[in-house]
Amino acid sequence: MTSTMNSNSFIRVLAGSMTLLSAALAYFVSPNWLLLTAFVGLNLIQSTITGFCPPTLILRKLGWLGDDGIIHWGGRRRD
User: Rounded to whole angstroms, how far apart are CA atoms 60 and 67?
Assistant: First the structure.
């Protein structure tokens, strides 16, 4: 059995995780890590406007994102 996830849900989880990681790094390491938060936010805005989303491009190249927008972790099973 393969686990699946909608690509929109994955992008939200990824963006939230990167934002939290960036905030923690800014607090504990250097305030410069807030640039990562800005990058994540700007990437979300541009992907909404243009429809181009780098993480989905990577998932598609790995063969994990189907035409239906569902992520199949580890790729699709070929029977």
Answer: 9
Inter-CA distances, 59 with 20, 22, 23, 34, 65, Å: 22, 23, 26, 26, 5
**CA–CA separation, 28 vs 78, rounded Å?**
46
Place of tokens 């190249």: 61
Residue 37 near residue 26, CB atoms below 8 Å: yes
Whole-model pTM? 0.80
List CB contacts of 65: < 8 A, sequence separation 6 or more.
Answer: 7, 56, 59, 71, 72
- Encoding tokens for residue 10? 């994955």
pLDDT digits (tens, 9 = 90+) for 45-65: 999 999 999 998 998 898 888
